[in-house]
Design goal:
By secondary structure, this protein is mainly β. The protein has two domains: about 140 residues, 3-Layer(aba) Sandwich (Protein Transport Mog1p, Chain A), CATH 3.40.1000; about 80 residues, Immunoglobulin-like. Helices cover about 15% and strands about 45% of the residues.
């Protein structure tokens, strides 16, 4: 099918943009440390794709199940709209003709063939594809929902006692938008990824940083999370006025 035909087939115009007034969520510099899927052991994690658009490809093995492998691919987009365009591109590559939209999650928008043999979804600016990769085939809805819950909510505060430290979290306002300045470090020097959320507005990756554009004027509040490989989390609230 042509790109226009794919968009029409999946009713892309109905979900191409986030709903106005919805919670704004943005994931930045996402990384997998092997603790993200309860009941699964990580087999391999690697970065794939282009340097300016990296993605993570990973293999997981459910505990006590021989022959079962689950592949989880995660990619970040510079905006929610860009993530949904990438989700449409993934749908065009599905081999099954029976891929349908799921209205009970995971993600903000999700599609899967019957039986949950695979699922592709977008949560905020992140696109996730979960599928079987071993000899045995089983539903992948559980790992898909576990990862989606982590993206949507962030880790529980007591997940790890070894937590990052946020050294700086500020917003530099210019007109109707604010550029976020965040500096954080892990006590063991491990990689960190970040989760930003606000009640209403739009986050964008721009010039190696994050910009927030609120829907309205007045006082704004953004929650910043810094998260390490063991899912230890530090939180900071950033408030400003536009």
């Amino acid at each position: 099918m042509t790109a226009d035909a794919v968009a029409k087939h999946y009713a892309f115009d109905e979900w191409s943009e986030p709903r106005r007034g919805a919670e704004a969520l943005f994931i930045w510099q996402f990384a997998l440390g092997g603790q993200e899927l309860p009941g699964h052991r990580v087999v391999r994690v690697e970065t794939v794709g282009q340097p300016d658009a990296p993605a993570i490809a990973s293999l997981w093995s459910p505990d006590q199940k021989e022959g079962v492998l689950v592949r989880v691919d995660v990619s970040e987009a510079p905006s929610v709209a860009a993530a949904r365009a990438e989700l449409l591109r993934l749908l065009a590559e599905f081999q099954s003709p029976h891929v349908e939209r799921l209205h009970d999650g995971p993600g903000d928008v999700a599609f899967a063939p019957g039986g949950y043999r695979a699922v592709a979804f977008a949560r905020g600016n992140v696109v996730v594809l979960v599928r079987n990769a071993g000899d045995d085939v089983e539903p992948v809805d559980t790992p898909a929902r576990e990862l989606d819950r982590l993206l949507h909510d962030g880790p529980a505060a007591d997940r790890s006692s070894v937590r990052p430290t946020i050294r700086r979290a500020t917003a530099e306002v210019a007109g109707r938008e604010a550029r976020l300045r965040v500096e954080a470090e892990d006590p063991l020097g491990r990689l960190l990824w970040f989760r930003f959320s606000a009640k209403r507005g739009e986050f964008l990756a721009q010039d190696d940083g994050i910009v927030f554009r609120p829907e309205g004027e007045g006082t704004q509040a953004i929650e910043v999370m810094a998260i390490n490989e063991n899912l230890g989390v530090a939180r900071e609230q950033v408030e400003f006025t536009v």
